[in-house]
Amino acid sequence: MTSTGDPATDAGELDAAFAETVRRTGASIGALYLLAPDEPVLCLDVLCGAPAEFAAPWARVPLAAPAPVADAVRHGRMVWLGSQDEIVRSYPRTAMALPYPLALVAAPVIGVRLWGALLLMWPATRPPYMTGRERGHIESSCRRLARLLEEDAGRGGAPDRGGGPRVVQAGTGRTSVSPASAAADFVERLPGGSCALDLEGHFTYVDSGACRLLGQDAGRLLGTLPWQSLRWLDDPTYEDRYRAAVISREPVSFTACRPPDQWLEFHLYPDASGISVRIVPSGAQPPPSPASRRSASTVIPARAGQLYQLTHLAAALTEVVGVQDVIDLVADQIMPAFGAQGLVLSTADAGRLRINGHRGYAPHTIERLDGLPLDTDFTPAGRALSSGIPAFFSDPDEMRRIYPEAPQISGKQAWAFLPLIISGRPVGCCVLSYDDPREFPAEERAVMTSLAGLVAQALDRARLYDVKHDLAHGLQQALLPRTLPAVTGLRVAARYLPATRGMDIGGDFYDLIRLGDTAAAAVIGDVQGHDVAAAALMGQVRTGVHAHATRGATPGQILSGTNRLLTYLGPDLFTSCLYAHLDFARRRVTLASAGHPPALLRLPDGATRPLDVPPGPLLGVDPDAEFPVTEIPLTAGLMLLFYTDGLVETPGTDIEDSIARLARHLSQADDRDLDRLIDDLLARSAAGERRTDDIALLVLHDDTGR
Q: Does pTM surpass 0.90?
């Protein structure tokens, strides 16, 4: 019932339960992903209904990836996508690599612990919704799979992912398909048909009429792939039609020319056991196609599967941000795509090759290779980078003839040295290596070379991003207070979190200013934007507020003075601000606001509410603006929470409802440790894991009498 592309093997109860789940749900394709033990990656363990080659772009899915199986595991919930339109909207990278009409669900496999995710796909002909009964069945199947995994783990078993995913059949239980049984299946599916393919694309049955039309004997076709045994079908367009039939499970048709001028119509009828193909002469000759008349010297095009893989990886490379993201992507997706066991990614720096990331190499090997000059003759990396020409070595002897020392250093048996070049400028070198000798076919070399150009672009962008990020992050850290001053009778805690998108910086700020022995001031603000300009303006606002506060101005005067400063500077960025003056002698708190969300007041009995502070306009809008002042008593045990809108503002949610929810959380929070209190508020906030805005919080707790 199972196979790995070679002889069938018995994979046990897990594979049987998985295959039964696929059959009972009516899914056309199923996949079981398991969490890797030592890294945040989901590995494809079992596949049903499609060749393993189809799943190559998703053999390893990082947990942080924007993919249905990753989201199902991260959030511990089912992800249902009822149509291709939903997939395009929610997961554009997945839709780019699966451009077929289908529906899918990804469900977490959870028992005593989280094991991974189950992925099921259906043709688009199924209803675009999931019933409660279906959902319950999938969830119970996931629990059953988890139980089997736990029993296997209890016996000391562990999934073996070294040979790639196991491929199982959902319905028939046959270990292989003979020509006779394939012919019988064909007759059942399509009366009078011509030939049959298995789901991997191999001919399993060919009748005499098909042999005449295709111009080949059955003995030369059976067991082969059409695009290998029939050179005139060796075009990605035709292979894509076969892929569309396998994945969508819907009939597909296309027309192709058998040289010199016989046009044939191919009609593909797929189901769970294979594809019936009817071939008939075309009634009308389509326009001439370059693919129909190719000489033997024509370059073989890349396989459609490789093109989809390249498209998938290209889309992934557009989403990486920093250099480490590029390294992780190459290691997690590009290495498995080409079956490599080793990786060295280096950049050109001051005439030397500096290694930025590696996989599959011992530390002492990396130390020996790091920092080699660009003109080194120790390895091919320097020559490949200077010439811009990739170098491929199929075995150690081939490498040893030119670079005698290189094979001994790494112990690898085959290498691909891919120069990373942008507009003639060397960026670095990507080395993929293998533990066994291997050939590099021309089409694979072409795909690797194309991919190297995409990696070069991504790496160059990532290096620039890292430089800008380090500069901006250093600027912001310098502008925010390193520590808050100690104020007698007052406990304080603060936190700043950047947005998860962008450069990890912004204009949110906070400060606590000590004003002698009997007073202090608290300020929080939010400068529009999440870039260097916002961070720089934040520093100016904070300095302006501090200068006015230390001169003894009232809260309204402080905001007025800072407002005039900003309108004079004319930064085209606006700022919200909330300022509070705490007078410990008079036991009063005086506040003024410039369009900032209200502070939360928590009384000693736990009652919590937003403070009613009439806001003035944002700073930097009107130079003559006035800012009303509000005064409240400074009760012993009183707590004030100042925050920026990133904590409470989410799309589709009323901000007043979010503030009310934050007040409820604050009323229930344990105030013995203010840093833990902030952790609790952040964990329960509406901002979630993916923050679209930065967040600043400042908590003040009067502990007089404690």
A: no
